[in-house]
Amino acid sequence: EVQLVESGGDLVEPGGSLRLSCAASGFTFSSYSMYWVRQAPGKGLGWVSSISSSSSYIFYADSAKGRFTISRDNAKNSLYLQMNSLRAEDTAVYYCARKAYGNYNMDVWGKGTTVTVSS
Amino acid sequence: QFALTQPASVSGSPGQSITISCTGTSSDVGAYNYVSWYQQHPGKAPKVMIYDVSNRPSGVSDRFSGSKSANTASLTISGLQAEDEADYYCGSYTSSSTWVFGGGTKLTVL
CA-CA distances (angstroms) from residue A6 to B14, B16, B33, B82? Predict the structure, then answer.
């Protein structure tokens, strides 16, 4: 079964750091580009970052630039999001998602991990 | 603030058809045929219903269809069923190699 499982979400104070992980299984992880997408409480979806299969291409939303770092370890079938200088507005459920092979959509999603930034 | 504009809510009775619009710019919706639609039930992860403007993934009902004209994409659901009640989001790949989503539309089946 194709599956993505996020972890690492927690309650953190403003200015703090957190590292999210996404464990992939059931498919050849190294062949797929991956995304992080977040959803603030009661709000819509917001794209955070993208990384290509070999990590050659990385893109960030303006809200993440300079603070967040996406990375992957294909040997461990894992995707990561290092989040620094966290703000209250970063509070959200963070989903990892797979880019469909051969076209542009997010065809597999994890269940999400919750990040709460509050003092 | 979301880059793509969707109506906040739509509603319809069982058996009816509804259409949700998604308006962007020539840098996103109008740039490529890379618009996708996602269904999200409360507390659940999003699920892709339409990709590349009008294609349905395997397992998605043919009651769901998509189209695009210039900078506006649309999702149509025909033969509304109670299980279709959910939030729907459009998403588009952009000319900057980024992604943008709409603010979401809450579908109520009356």
Answer: 36, 38, 30, 30
Interface test with A, best of B29, B51, B58, B99 (most A CBs within 10 A): B99
The per-residue DSSP string of chain B comes to --SBB--SEEEE-TT--EEEEEE--TTTTTTSS-EEEEEE-TTS--EEEEBTTTBPPTTS-TTEEEEEETTEEEEEE-S--GGG-EEEEEEEE-TTS-EEEB--EEEEE-
Nearest to B84 by CA among B54, B55, B105, B53: B105
Stretch B35-46: mean pLDDT, rounded? 97
Average pLDDT, chain B: 96
Q: Are the CB atoms for A115 and A18 separated by under 8 Å?
A: yes
CB contact under 8 A, B89 and A44: yes
All residues of chain B having their beta carbon less than 8 Å from the beta carbon of residue A65 are: none
DSSP-derived secondary structure letter, A1: -
Count of Cβ atoms closer than 10 Å to residue B88 Cβ: 25
What is d(CA A115, CA A20) in angstroms, rounded to the nearest whole number?
9
Q: Which residue in A has a C-alpha nearest to residue B3's C-alpha?
A: A46
The pLDDT score that the predictor gives to residue A102 is 87
pLDDT of residue B2: 64
